[in-house]
Specification:
three-stranded antiparallel sheet, elongated
Length: 280
């Protein structure tokens, strides 16, 4: 019999695992040695056990725990096995979704950090072309222009609660912006009760999601929230001077809240889509 057995080291090498892994599987009664020498304590396996080890490794790579694998291997029917595998498929589907969303949002943060290096001086009006974007807009009881930074923080909490209650990935919360309807911007009666987050194609369909068409925007960047009203007024004056008019709502996009550029304040960009006035 012993001539057909292979040592634990050989078993490990054949299956591309470590001897520590085989000992762990034995401890958890997933794959125990076919024979253990009572005098030396050496562990021996058979080639036939490689098939079971391959299955364990495959299930482990599917993110199942050792306890789950042990339970699956003990199932007595194909129906129970199918149910267990379907449950894990659902778990992996959710995990893939969350990871994909996180990747997209991290890419957006990276892009914002790159934009920081190309921004003109704070307070200077500039034009930029912006591709189509999607935002989820939520009305709040707070007016940013009335309450300032305190209002922004309260709007953040409102948006955070919204994400939590709707079981949405928290990575969407990385940089929450505010929205002012175009008429308030034009009239100079600044008021913003709406917070928004940027969303992607993975975001669930909701009535509160808006598509911002591709357009040329007039923008101003700053790191001082107290100056937003003054910069918004300056933006509108410059817009009129250039013979242009807004064609969409005013956004305040938070580019980053990370401590870059030697400031602990958030860096934001106010922006509004524009078009030329007919005949100008």
């Amino acid at each position: 019999m012993r001539n057909s057995l292979i040592k634990i080291g050989e078993m490990a090498e054949l299956s591309h695992v470590s001897t520590q892994t085989l000992r762990l599987y034995a401890k958890n009664k997933l794959l125990e040695p076919e024979y253990m020498d009572p005098e030396t304590g050496y562990r021996y396996y058979t080639l036939e056990q490689c098939a079971k080890l391959d299955l364990i490794r495959a299930l482990k790579s599917c993110r199942l725990s050792l306890e789950q694998i042990k339970e699956i291997l003990s199932l007595s029917s194909e129906e129970l096995l199918m149910q267990a595998l379907e449950e894990q498929t659902g778990v992996l589907t959710d995990e893939i979704y969350n990871l994909s969303v996180s990747r997209n949002n991290l890419s957006r943060v990276q892009k914002n950090l790159q934009i920081l290096n190309t921004l003109p001086p704070f307070g200077q009006v500039f034009f930029e072309y912006v591709p189509e974007r999607k935002i989820d807009v939520q009305k709040t009881d707070f007016d940013f222009f009335e309450l300032g930074y305190e209002g922004y923080e309260k709007m953040l909490r409102h948006m955070q609660n919204y994400l939590h209650e709707n079981h949405l990935p928290p990575s969407y919360f990385i940089n929450v912006g505010t929205l002012m309807e175009m008429e308030y911007f034009i009239n100079g009666t600044y008021s913003s009760h709406s917070a928004f987050i940027f969303v992607d194609d993975l975001y669930p369909e909701k009535n509160s999601v808006r598509t911002l068409p591709q357009n040329t925007y007039m923008s101003v960047a700053s790191d001082n929230i107290a100056l937003e009203s003054a910069y918004a007024k300056h933006l509108y004056e410059e817009m009129k001077r250039k013979g242009m008019m807004p064609c969409g709502d005013y956004l305040c996009e938070v580019l980053t809240q990370f401590p870059v550029h030697q400031t602990k304040q958030l860096i934001y960009k106010i922006q509004i889509p524009v078009q030329r006035i007919n005949g100008s």
